[in-house]
Design goal:
The structure is a single chain. It contains one helix and ten strands; from the N terminus they run E-E-E-E-E-E-H-E-E-E-E. By secondary structure, the chain is mainly beta. Strands 1-3-4-5-6-8-9-10 form an eight-stranded antiparallel barrel. 23% of the residues are buried.
């Protein structure tokens, strides 16, 4: 018996610039998303304010993400994007990120689960898909994800 296969197709790339995190209490970091865009064959949108990333640093060094983005398409339609995710931390990776190094996604486990909500007629299809994001590069105030629609 062959193993079942999960099929995906590339949806878009999400590129973002984030401010240095603001530590809040024990283990909570808040990043302001300064500038970002999502670009693919069926969607192009810029991130508007307010948009941010709340990260809970776990005792083992992992980051649990809670991201909320307000998007505006090139046709001025509003889309809400939210996701959770996980970065598996290690002391070496934490040091590289703290130094501002840009770390390739191939050197870390950094995944997300974006969802979208909109009432824009041309983008209603976004309400009905499940996505997975895989970090392509992170650090130095930049995050680049590839987003895949699960078919």
């Amino acid at each position: 018996m062959s193993a079942p296969e999960l099929k995906t197709q590339w949806l878009a790339t999400l590129r973002g610039a984030i401010a240095d995190p603001r530590p809040i209490g024990d283990g909570l970091l808040i990043f302001n998303v300064l500038d970002a865009e999502i670009k693919g064959p069926r969607i192009y949108a810029k991130v508007l304010q307010p948009s941010g990333d709340w990260i809970r640093v776990q005792p083992n060094g992992n980051w649990k993400l809670d991201v909320r983005l307000l998007l505006e398409t090139d046709t001025r339609e509003a889309i809400y994007c939210y996701y959770t995710g996980l970065l598996k931390g290690s002391p070496e990776l934490s040091e590289r990120i703290a130094r501002g190094d840009r770390v390739p996604g191939s050197e870390m486990y950094f995944r997300s689960t974006p969802y979208f909500e909109t009432t824009a007629a041309d983008y209603l299809w976004l309400n009905d898909i499940v996505c997975v994001g895989s970090m392509r590069e992170f650090g130095g105030g930049q995050a680049i994800y590839d987003l895949y629609e699960v078919l």
